[in-house]
Amino acid sequence: MQLIIAEKKLAAYAYAKALSNNYTEKEGYLIGENRIIYTWAQGHLLQLADPGDIREEWEAWVWEQLPILPTEIPLKPIKNQEKQLYLIKTLANQCSSLVNGMDCAGEGELIFYEIVRYLKLEHLPTKRLWTASLQSTAIREAYQNLRSQGEFTHLRTAAFTRNRLDYLTGINTSRSLTLVGDGQTLAMGRLIGSSLSLIDLRARARAEFEEENYYAIKGQFKQDQTLFTANYSGGKITSKEVLGETLNLITQNAAALDYTDQIKEQLPPFLLNHTDVLVIIFQRYGLKPKETSRVLEQLYIKGLITYPRTDSRFVTKDEIVPMRATFRIMSEVFPNLSKGSNIDKFNVQNERVVNTVSDHHALIPTLEIPKNLKEEEKWVYQLILERFFLQVQQPKKTNVRSVTVQYTDEIKFKTTFQITMEPGWKGLA
Hints:
Layout (H helix, E strand, L loop, with lengths): L1 E5 L2 H11 L3 E4 L2 E4 L3 E5 L5 E3 L2 H4 L20 E3 L4 H11 L4 E5 L4 H13 L7 E3 L7 H9 L2 E2 L4 H27 L10 H19 L9 E6 L2 E7 L7 H13 L3 E11 L7 H12 L3 H13 L18 H14 L41 H16 L5 E11 L5 E11 L7
Parallel strand pairs: 1-4, 1-7, 7-8
Antiparallel strand pairs: 2-3, 3-4, 5-6, 8-9, 10-11, 11-14, 12-13, 13-14
């Protein structure tokens, strides 16, 4: 038997769907009729031991014990994750080989490495299932071409190093700040530190900013039958005397009007990632991110969308053929969304669609036709479907007209306005 360990539960289900004709659901794992077992890690199952677990004297937060620099940092199970961790060991002991099915990134390599090392599974032959796509065809191709685990040592090493540096930075800076903070526990680390630095820089800029009063002039002009407003674009006017002189010159003299036209194209927004969906659904319907995540998982389990836990807005070349098939089917189901579209935009050379992908590709609909969706499911599915169709729409074409009303070299008014020539994708958005 063979054990495939995915990073998340939904990925394990995708593997089972792609690699086994039938599978049985068990508590914490799936077993296929072809003797492949699928389980998952639920993200990290292990964490680095606390300093006090390594050396008793490091339990105390005192200056004398800093800096804390252990030569080795042992692992321990995360609270409430012990059951899944030891289930993996039980399943592995029934199998003759392992497949690392974690996400395609350094963090996935680290999670798998730590599980194998902690559970002492190094003796089992191991291969890497490497696919950023959870489309069944892509999974099957990756499984037929399983790669050597050694190919990804560099990713594991990078993630391992970052993880340990974060730990050492956190335990030492947090304790240092707490010791000078009158007993108040103050957390500090790599991300908090950089964020506080940005906040501090902004606070300093605001504190050092010197207010300056000046006068703004807005003029209303007419050319033929067109009435428009424009803002004074000369230097800042800081005195009433200069303001009066300027207004006097404007009222007593004629102006020269000039304009330039520039045709601009606005491309449709990119495909959606997980965070995009959470933000847009909250803005449109007020649905909380946690609820939206739950709806995304339901749509995925129903086979209506691709893997939802993704931070990418692009797909790999493997998705182009399935996307074309989805387009043809969904064009019949939702004909209004396909008006003016061009399926040829779904091609491997289109870098707005096919580009670098991290763990998983962007959210896209599948071939499955939606039926009997709940209200929240309709909101989320419609958003993903619409964004999918926007990728094959024409750009919006706009004539940007820049107008200058000039009295002297120094005294002039400027404005810009847009004239839509072709609505393109905006006609659907």
